[in-house]
Write a structure and sequence with these properties.
2 domains; Aldehyde Dehydrogenase, Chain A, domain 1; 7-stranded mixed beta sheet; Aldehyde Dehydrogenase, Chain A, domain 2; 43% helix; 405 residues
């Protein structure tokens, strides 16, 4: 049975999605309030952190951003409705596939929603295997209020994991499966898909930052606050959290000054975005990393700056990968060569490179370390909707072209 969205124009679908997102942008919107509390309860994040995440998610879902992403990949929004001419290529129709399944991640708030709305814009039937906070299901309910076609085209259910017969059938019959998770989870999910299914995986990645000597000399309070926010938001979880920062200090005095200033910025950000309920194992890992760094500092190597529930480790060793522990940021001394060698030595899959400015050297470094995004520090946790999360396409994976020649 064809999705009821086939009867609507893509432009109307885009407008409905944007209208629903506008309602969710209101912090007092009742479904959002309920979802915010459920997310905070499930993940243990503080309510200010969850509210910030929902603002970043829904403020970015606008008609202009949706249209920009579609046009950049398909040439025209109208290509989703039927055959359109294309310069230098056959006239063609970007027809959405019939069924899309999306498996959400454990921690990142609303990560499954963005691919879901693009699949809906492609007029696909979408099923999301969501988490217990039911954020996606609640947003789908708002879409159904915008137009009844969404009621049967978009659905979300609690994620149960392996051994679920309904999930086996869902994955086996989906034309496209989008999945977020660890490598072993992705391999298992891929094995349960149909032979002809398009599998779009988003595995574990890290994000790194870099400051040149010139950046350090001109670092203002906004840049320092941005670094601290990127590191501490969501307790350091997620591929867009800042997991390590390289600083090319001109001398020891410049590095010591940076240490004091970044420590003060982290203290302020920790008040604005306090820690949530962190699992004992992660708390213990953070404490162990901090104690080892303090031992090194006592011997004259580096420094440890603790600001309440956050820890900055300065002059961290390069022979250790990022610790990936809660609210902890290692700062390493070194230039672009050192950062690239660090990534290579530890085989790090890099999501984003945070920089003071996305100039030509920054893009060259991002290319060298195979980062899929170069962004100003302070914006890592706010990726644009029309960008390419994980370097992937936004809507093109949900369509199959029908050429007319």
């Amino acid at each position: 049975m064809a999705s009821p969205l086939r009867a609507l124009s893509a432009a109307r679908i885009v407008a409905f999605v944007a209208d629903a997102a506008r309602r969710w942008s209101d912090a007092d919107f009742a479904p959002r309030v309920r979802a915010m509390r459920a997310i905070a309860d499930r993940l243990g994040y503080s309510e200010p952190v969850v509210d910030y995440a929902l603002d970043r998610l829904f403020f970015g879902i606008t008609a202009a951003a949706l249209e920009a992403a579609i046009v950049s990949e398909l040439g025209a929004v109208a290509a989703l409705d039927g055959v359109v001419p294309r310069a230098g290529a056959p006239a063609a129709w970007a027809r959405g596939v019939d069924r899309v399944a999306i498996v959400s991640s454990d921690t990142t708030i609303g990560v499954a929603l963005v691919p879901a709305i693009f699949a809906l814009c492609a007029k696909c039937e979408v099923v999301v295997k969501d988490r217990s906070d039911a954020l996606v299901a609640a947003f789908f309910a708002t879409l159904a209020e915008e137009h009844p076609a969404f009621a049967s085209a978009a659905s979300a259910r609690a994620w149960a994991g392996g051994g679920d017969f309904d999930e086996d059938a869902l994955l086996a019959h989906a034309d496209v499966v989008v999945a977020f998770g660890r490598d072993e989870t992705l391999r298992t999910l891929r094995s349960r898909c149909g032979a002809d299914a398009r599998f779009v995986p988003f595995g574990h990645r890290v994000s790194l930052g870099r400051l040149t000597a010139a950046d350090l000399a001109h670092a203002d309070e906004a840049l320092l606050a941005g670094i601290a926010r990127d590191a501490l938001l969501y307790d350091g979880e997620g591929c867009l959290s800042l997991h390590a920062l390289f600083v090319d200090a001109a001398d020891d005095a410049a590095f010591a000054m940076f240490t004091r200033r970044l420590g003060a910025a982290a203290e302020r950000i920790a008040i604005e975005f306090p820690a949530g309920r962190i699992e004992p194992a992660r708390t213990a890992a953070a404490a162990a990393y901090r104690q080892l760094a303090a031992f090194r500092a006592a011997g004259g190597r580096g420094a440890v700056v603790g600001s309440g529930d956050s820890t900055l480790v300065f002059d961290a060793p390069r022979d250790e990968p990022p610790p990936l522990v809660a609210r902890t940021l290692p700062i390493l001394r070194g230039d672009d060569e050192a950062l690239a060698a660090y990534v290579a030595a530890h085989h790090l899959p890099v999501q984003a490179l945070g920089v003071a400015a996305t100039d030509e050297p920054a893009v060259a470094l991002a290319t060298r370390i195979a980062a899929v995004r170069a962004a100003p520090l302070g914006t890592l946790q706010d990726p644009p909707l029309a960008g390419h999360h994980g370097g992937a396409q936004r809507i093109a994976d949900f369509i199959r072209w029908i050429d007319t020649s």
